[in-house]
Amino acid sequence: MVTMRLLNVNVNVILKINFVNGKMQKIIISCRPEYLGSDYQKRFFPQNGKKGFQELTIKAFSETEVQQYIAKYVQNKRHLLDWSEDTYLQQIKRIPKDLVSNPILLKITLIALPRFTKQQKTTQINRIALYDEFLKTWFDRAQDRLYKIHKTNKEEEAFSNLNINDFTESCLQFSKNFAAKMFIDNNKVVITYNSNWATFLGNKDIENSLLRFSMPLIRRENQYWFLHKSLRDHLIAQALLEPNESALNTALFNKQSFVSEHGVRQFLAEHMYQKMETFKPQLLSFIETSKKDDEVQIASANAITILTQVDVLLDNLNDANISGADLSNKIFNNLQTERAKLNQVNFQNTELKNANLRSSFLQSADFQNAKLQNADLRGSSFQNAHFNDADLSFADFRNTILQDVNFKNANLRNTSLQNACIKNADLTFADFQNTILVDIYFQEMSTENVNDEIYNVGYCYQNGVGVEKDEQKAFAYYQKSAEMGNASGTCSIGYCYRHGIGVEKDELKAFIYYQRSADMGDANGMCNVGYCYQNGIGIEKDEHMAFYYYLKSAKLGCYGGMYHVGYCYRNGSGTSQDFKKASEWLYKAKTNKCSYETKPYTEDCLYESKCLVPQIPINDVEFYGKFGEGAFASVYLARWKSNGLTQPIVLKLFPKLKENFSEENFSEVNAFK
Predict the structure, then answer these.
(1) E runs forming strands in 507-663
(2) Start-to-end Cα distance in the chain
(3) H or E element: which one contains 192?
(4) How far is it, in rounded angstroms, from Cα 308 to Cα 265?
(5) pLDDT tens-digit readout, 532-582
(6) Phi-psi region of 456 (alpha: psi -120 to 50; beta: other; left: phi over 0)
(7) Cα angle, residue 386 at apex, residues 385 and 389 outer, rounded to 5°
(8) I want to staple 325 with a disulfide (CB 3.0 to 4.6 A). Which of 129, 208, 301, 524 is the partner?
(9) Residues 642, 620 contacting (CB under 8 angstroms)
(10) Residue of 468, 477, 473, 516 lying closest to 494 (CA atoms)
């Protein structure tokens, strides 16, 4: 067992630990799992799959643990504190629980809380207020340290200038500028010193050196980062607002996306809640401008993301460019986004019922587990989009481009995919029941376990199930399913060629497609190959090959194959005659008949099944009564014991079987049933 208490940890760590059993294990510790991305667990599965993978979450501080932490905090810093443990415990009750359940937030709160009380602040304490007070307290202490330490004459002069201009405010502005540059520089968390950072990290400007000394930074060799990432996020959020938080910093808003920065978004959302009327019109302006100017795409995506986070849900985004935005976990039913640019937008777990996304660009958009029932998606482009587990029932995909799209486990029932281009898509476990698949272009498909949906469409057209019977369409859908690697569809094409269904009759092609399906492991295809060998259909007659394929199909559960194996054993066709094996296989065929209902094309193999009467060894029969007697035979009631089962039978015994046997004898037996 490994017990951990993590404080001030701001990294993802991979540790290798040798356990008692001698196996090398890996432990991945992360204090920011949201940065690992969705479905991150799969990336850490062992080579044998999910087996052996465990995920543990360190619980938030309980009330008891908060009290214990406060006790230790006061004990360790008693000489620096004006408050007692009891005072902290009383004042902490003013703080929302979510702001003290995290050890970093709790420490920040304990540092900032006395300042709140001293200044008799009555405003509600929130995350922004806590971080503001923490930074002011930090800068005040830094100022005290600078007063006490030895300084050069130039440092003394620079320090005096900073004090004249409000030392704390200067530190705060310097810290915001530093965080903003981290944000612009690809959202960096750790900075490695180079010439681009000389203004902040160089030593030529003495005032800046003193300000850097006063910041809550950690330095290791030539690398710098904030004491905790949440401090960086708080300062970035402040930098995105103009001075006095009266407007948005338009230039910075369009410099870099903060969509993936959940901490920054959380702070901005709190600012939005406090000043909704101030910021909302400016955010809407970014989105409106993006309809005519793609240069504001970043600002537009940032704007719609933060509006969505504070539940300001828009219903008309026609022509907007919000590529890269996060609209996940919200309800956008009836949303209008016609001709919009929605590339890489996150729609995970979002409801988009009856939405209009016609003629839009949605490359790499993520619709995982989204609900798009009745959505109008006509003419849109979905390259590399993900629809895993999405509900797309009754959606309209006509004339869409679906290249490299992932439909794994998606519900596509009753959708229209007419004229769509589906290239290299993953349709694993997708449900295509009643889907319109007319004139679709399929290429390089990944179709493992597609549930035979396209094949089933062909079956419905062939047999008039839920649709008007159309043998040519049936053949077309069988061809589509065969092109996608579906063994049943391939076998069905053979059946169509064999009987001239939707295509000109061609026995050679029938055998070719039966053979292909058999090579793909299809039991019905094997049975039909056997039938072709037995009867010389598209191939030279070969009873031994017929028996070989019948037996293969029978062992895979094909009841037609079982019948024919019994037939071959009874007549010695392609194998040695064996009445006992004949009766066993014929009995299996009877008891497994249910499998035939879903595979209609085995009927090719059952052309004589009604004439197959099993040969029953006399030792397996128990007579218990004479039913009747005629001129040539006697009829008895008996029990047939086989394979552990007993069933009643009627036997007609012919004293001179070879002289008197005829087809009429079978009808006489049937009359007694």
Answers:
(1) 621-629, 634-642, 645-653
(2) 72
(3) strand 191-192
(4) 11
(5) 999 999 999 999 999 999 999 999 988 889 989 988 988 889 999 887 888
(6) alpha
(7) 155
(8) 301
(9) yes
(10) 516
Q: What is the C-alpha to C-alpha distance for residues 511 and 532, in angstroms, rounded to an integer?
A: 7
- The answer to whether 554 and 575 are in contact (CB under 8 A) is no
Spatial separation of the C-alpha atoms in residues 457 and 415, rounded to whole Å:
13
Query: Residues 110-132, buried b or exposed e (16+ Cβ, 10 A)?
Result: bbbbbebeeeeeeeebebbbbbb
pLDDT of residue 19: 47
CB 7 within 8 A of CB 13: no
According to CATH, where is 3.30.200.20 located in the chain?
Answer: 618-672
Answer whether 0.85 is exceeded by the pTM: no
Q: Which residues contact 525 (CB under 8 A, 6 or more apart)?
A: 487, 490, 491, 494, 514, 515, 516, 517, 518, 519, 553
Q: For tokens 């938030």, what's the residue?
A: 60
pLDDT one-digit tens code per residue, 93-143: 878 777 787 777 788 888 888 877 776 555 567 888 888 888 998 999 999
Residue 15, beta-bridge partner list: 27
Cα 50 to Cα 38: distance, rounded to the nearest angstrom: 16
pLDDT in tens, 374-396: 999 999 999 899 998 899 999 89
Cβ neighbors of 110 (< 8 A, separation 6 or more) are 70, 73, 88
DSSP string, 74-130: HHHTGGG-SS-HHHHHHHGGGS-GGGTSSHHHHHHHHHHHHHHHHTT--SPP-HHHH
Q: Is residue 503 within 8 Å of 475, Cβ to Cβ?
A: yes
Distance between CA 84 and CA 395 in Å, rounded?
A: 64
At position 141, the amino acid (one-letter code) is R
Q: Which of 57, 73, 67 is nearest to 6 (CA)?
A: 57
- What Å distances lie between residue 545 and 363, 416, 530, 534, CA to CA? 52, 44, 7, 8
HSE-CB for 640 with a 13 A CA cutoff: 17
**Hey, what amino acid is at 66?**
V
The residue among 528, 500, 552, 518 whose CA lies nearest residue 602 is 528
Question: How do beta strands 621-629 and 441-443 pair?
Answer: unpaired
DSSP string across 52-64:
T-----PPPPPHH
User: What is the amino acid identity at position 102?
Assistant: N
Q: Which residue has the tokens 């810093």?
A: 77
Q: What is the CATH number of domain 618-672?
A: 3.30.200.20
CA-to-CA distance for 157 and 210, rounded, in angstroms?
11
